[in-house]
């Protein structure tokens, strides 16, 4: 374990990223435990208020993210600074993304159905950071050979193609495939080739008069949602708590 950590994390300079990820995940877990205890009326915890104002934990999260980000820049990559900044940034990001739905809707939707977006964003972010730790580079530059890397035109072409596939996947309503496709090129390619989801910009533009394609897209989306919605909701409820009934 020690040799693997030295060879794959410390030598490539990925220790700050690992610390940030660990702080991010731990902060999310602890925050959800505390908020669920508050919701159940158990334990010594309670909402933080300033007069009549409820101070959401996104507020200290933003402060810690800013401090960690500027601290990392100011440290110049030397000494203990990058590691401390990485931990502060991870804690802040965990607090911010735990209330991502609140920022998106500009409303306290933490325990509502819309609050599931916070859990989705946390899981998505953690998964992307794990891919970065595993050695995947954005836009698939890591898949290019050394000769291609020396050739700027070849590298730029690879980046442009992968970015294009990711944009097509995004326009087809494949948001998760588009995001992961930025890191893993084959995912973006798969997302760009699959049928667009109903209501996506691609479907509205290209399926308007193609009745068969529109029907196939509706049927595939129905079967996909029927197959995966319940397991996804179960995992979200286990991680973040079950939303209140409307």
Automatic annotation (TrEMBL):
Transmembrane segments: 15-34, 54-74, 86-106, 121-141, 153-171, 177-196
UniProt entry tagged with the keyword Ligase: no
UniProt entry keywords in alphabetical sequence: Membrane, Transmembrane, Transmembrane helix
Record bears the keyword Transmembrane: yes
Listed name of the protein: Integral membrane protein
